[in-house]
Design brief:
heterodimer; A: 264 residues; alpha/beta; Rossmann fold; Arc Repressor Mutant, subunit A; 2 domains; five-stranded parallel sheet; four-stranded antiparallel sheet; elongated; B: 319 residues; alpha+beta; Heat Shock Protein 90; five-stranded mixed sheet; two-stranded antiparallel ribbon; 57% helix; 14% strand
């Protein structure tokens, strides 16, 4: 997760939760900021902090800040009427803008049809997902990033490499300076981009051979792929003056596929 | 498909009732006079039609009584389900409150330690790691209790909705990746084909079954857990492999039993409730699938490990 994307282009996240001052939410806000997101916390103007006050402020904030995504709680306060206020706020948000990604905190046992029931009340293409409030901050950020969907133009691999999709280039970072890795071009770059995309989506995701073999030719495409991966590791290693072992950077998992991992 | 016998009987009686009326109305046309000059000059077919009509009316009254009672019972079952859900909402919310506070504090402490790079006693780091690692357990525990109650509902049936299994697996991996990392366990997953697409099934059940299997693997894995998603013509499979020491042959027949844990066999303190795999298995059967386990038990052998294989239909709409 660390240094995965370059500042996430300062994407704005609107946080709507009456417990935003709690330690649990503070740890989520901190994680978001570390990962380069800008957080905007909705605070009600009234003194009661009712769900209605949060709803009004959320709709104002939506118009004012045009956030890239929203983190929304289901339950507001202890009033019985506000027990599912978040769902009514969600509906109003989606009615205004059904493209905006909303990650909804739930703190209940999921219930067999709850998510389905909620999403059924929304428009078909509403971009809504649900996450347990006890989820780790890393999990929240990961889910939010996937919900926003757009892979950043620049992906960092550890502190050592930067993949610039726009310019189709890979940079090595040596002593804080970026230097282009000239050897990584064409198919090798495509393989690296595929692996980096999987890493961006989910740290544990492996790219199966079937997906990578289109970047290799010859009768034995698996062997050809193996050669390209080896060359790729050598090129990347050479650019920073080190040699990556079989268990570093790009690893072969039990002959199923390859996986990119952050270098130490 | 379940046949509603009461509704079928009710329909048959209504048909007889209509036949009776038709017989009465049509008797002057199709029947012969029995005794045209007496009081009872009506055609015999009218007598027959009248009898059918009266008997049908009596039967209809009786069957309606049972039918209404059944509908009322069904309504009660539905409201029982709603009440159960409400109960769990409150239960999870209230039980979660102290845990949210504990977890919040633990995460604050963790952040401060990281930011200040302070050296803390090993006991302290072990404590905060333990709190974090128990968090998915708690989430799963509440879900497990709800599913146990739901499975008791005789009218429950799996939902049939479009599901993206790869997305479900990815979310589960996210949940356990960092927990595993802290224990030194690497969690890897893949879907083959990587554009796995959509199946029709019960998303909530799939999530719950795989979560229980992965949670179990996290407890026993040594360094590695692999989750793979594959499919054939009619089914899709989720395989969860861990490199733990495996399950002893004598334990294999019991692992899906309710309340059974390896500690039970060793007569030591139970580390878990022993309902996770029981629920995974019951829920799999409920969804029309199978859950199998292969295990190589060894304390030294490199081939050791356990694989759970979940098989579910690609499309459950026809079932």
């Amino acid at each position: 997760m660390n240094n995965l994307s370059e500042k996430n282009n300062n994407q704005k996240i609107l946080v709507v939760d009456d417990e935003h001052m709690s330690d649990l939410m503070r740890s989520v806000l901190r994680r978001l900021e570390i990962d380069g997101f800008k957080t905007i916390v909705v605070k009600p103007k009234g003194t009661m902090g009712t769900g209605d006050e949060y709803e009004i402020q959320t709709l104002f904030a939506l118009e004012e800040y045009h956030p890239d995504a929203i983190l929304l709680d289901v339950r507001f306060g202890e009033y019985d009427t506000d027990r599912f206020k978040g769902l009514s706020i969600l509906k109003k948000i989606v009615d205004r803008n059904n493209k905006i990604p909303v990650l909804m905190f739930t703190q209940y046992a999921q219930g067999p049809y709850r998510d389905t029931a909620v999403t059924a009340t929304l428009s078909v293409d509403a971009n809504v997902d649900f996450i347990d409030k006890l989820a780790s901050p890393e999990e929240v950020v990961l889910r939010l990033r996937r919900l926003i969907g757009s892979a950043p133009e620049k992906v960092m691999i550890g502190d050592l490499f930067e993949i610039d999709s726009d310019n189709s280039a890979v940079y090595a970072i040596v002593d804080g300076k970026k230097e282009i890795v000239k050897d990584v071009q064409g198919m090798k770059l495509e393989i690296l981009k595929e692996l980096a995309a999987a890493l961006y989506r989910s740290e544990g995701e492996l790219v199966p051979f079937s997906k990578l073999e289109r970047f290799s030719f010859g009768e034995d495409s698996r062997a050809s792929l193996r050669v390209r991966i080896r060359e790729l590791k050598i090129s990347l290693g050479k650019s920073i003056g080190r040699e990556f072992s079989a268990n570093e950077l790009i690893i072969n998992v039990r002959n199923r596929g390859y996986r990119l991992i952050h270098p130490e | 498909m379940k046949i509603d016998i009461l509704a079928l009987i009710k329909k048959s009686i209504i048909i007889f009732l209509i036949i009776g009326v038709i017989m009465i109305i049509s008797s002057p046309i199709i029947g012969d006079d029995l005794s045209p000059n007496s009081l009872w000059w009506i055609e015999p077919i009218a007598y027959l039609g009248g009898s059918i009509f009266i008997v049908s009316c009596i039967l209809l009254y009786i069957i309606n009584y049972f039918y209404d009672k059944k509908i009322e019972d069904n309504k009660n079952i539905k409201s029982w389900s709603r009440v159960t859900q409400d109960y769990f909402d409150t239960f999870a919310h209230d039980m979660g409150r102290p845990l949210r506070r504990i977890l919040g504090k633990e995460r604050e402490v963790r952040a401060v330690i990281k930011e200040t790079e302070s050296k803390v006693p090993r006991m302290v780091t072990e404590l905060i790691d333990e709190i974090e690692q128990q968090s998915p357990n708690f989430r799963l525990m509440i879900e497990n209790v709800r599913v146990l109650v739901d499975l008791e509902n005789p009218n429950a049936k799996p939902s049939s909705e479009p599901v993206e299994p790869a997305s479900v697996i990815r979310n589960i991996t996210d949940r356990y990746f960092y927990v595993g990392k802290e224990k030194g366990v690497d969690l890897v997953w893949w879907a083959d084909p990587s554009d796995f697409g959509i199946v029709f099934g019960d998303a909530s059940a799939l999530d719950h079954i795989v979560t229980n299997i992965v949670d179990n693997a996290t407890k026993f894995a040594n360094k590695q857990i692999e989750i793979s998603l594959i499919k054939d013509e009619n089914y899709y499979y989720v395989k969860v492999w861990d490199d733990g020491q495996g399950i002893e042959k004598s334990h294999l027949p019991h692992i899906f039993n309710r309340g059974w844990t390896p500690e039970l066999a060793a007569r030591s303190e139970k580390q878990s409730s022993g309902i996770g795999l029981f629920i995974a298995d019951s829920l799999t059967t409920f969804c029309g699938g199978t859950l199998d386990v292969n295990s190589n038990f060894s304390k030294t052998n490199e081939d050791k490990g356990t694989t759970f294989i979940l098989r579910l239909p690609l499309d459950n709409r026809s079932k």
